């Protein structure tokens, strides 16, 4: 969303004028047209990519110095990325999958739950999902629109399910593809996927084991670890402790 928040003098449009810019660069509405509007579109696409708002200032007096017009006035345009709720796809309705789905629902994700076992993929088994897909993993990828705002969490029960279904998942864009399991399980899965012809660049997109190292034990703690990693990725966090004074610091002890 691009909004003129201040205007002065002669300008193409006044404060309050708005324009919506879509991901493909097309727009709805206008804040004045011409070179200035083209620059705002370019800045809006950058804001969407970085997920950060910006305040833009334009003068209309000297095109030779780079101004986008000669009207004589000035405007400020606030550009704000407006994102839809991210989609979390939980594949596998066991103990960890249920815990991940519960936490993701509370965090405001659009939630899709899938399992090839019908009894694990119902509102009774996992309440609160927006969509339930009872199908093998390879078919799930064909039935939903996966994109740059989609996060896949595979809490599956065995290697053959991952090996069979992951190629279809990797054929679609996604912000995150995580697979549960030990390092040894992932090494086995990666080897078998490689033998099936999955490219190394696609394998590099997979996070396994997934989650942040919290020494998590219960399904609920594991769910916190997984969702914390996804939030860190979405918000470009560091994962570092935020406390200024950590246990053992000299300042914390007063010495």
Structure description:
The chain has 255 residues and is α/β, with parallel strands linked by helices. The chain has two domains: 2-79, no CATH class; 87-235, NAD(P)-binding Rossmann-like Domain (Rossmann fold, 3-Layer(aba) Sandwich), CATH 3.40.50. It is 34% helix and 20% strand. It contains eight helices and eleven strands. It has helices at 34-50, 95-106, 137-143, 159-170, 183-195, 200-203, 219-235, 250-253, and strands spanning 2-8, 18-21, 27-29, 54-59, 74-79, 87-91, 110-114, 131-133, 150-154, 176-179, 206-207. Strand 9 (150-154), helix 4 (159-170) and strand 10 (176-179) form a beta-alpha-beta unit. Helix 2 (95-106) crosses helix 7 (219-235) and helix 4 packs across helix 5. The radius of gyration is 24 Å and the shape is elongated. The chain starts with a strand and ends with a helix.
Notable characteristics:
six-stranded parallel sheet; elongated; 8 helices; single chain; Rossmann fold; 20% strand; alpha/beta; 255 residues; disordered C terminus
Low-confidence segments, ≥5 residues, pLDDT <50? 251-255
Which CATH class of the largest domain is shown? Alpha Beta
Beta-strand segment tally? 11
Helix coverage percent: 25-40%
The span between the termini is 52 Å
Question: What sequence of helices (H) and strands (E) makes up the elements?
Answer: EEEHEEEHEEHEHEHHEHH
Give the rounded overall mean pLDDT.
Answer: 90
Summary?
The chain is 34% helix and 20% strand. The chain is of the alpha/beta class and 255 residues long.
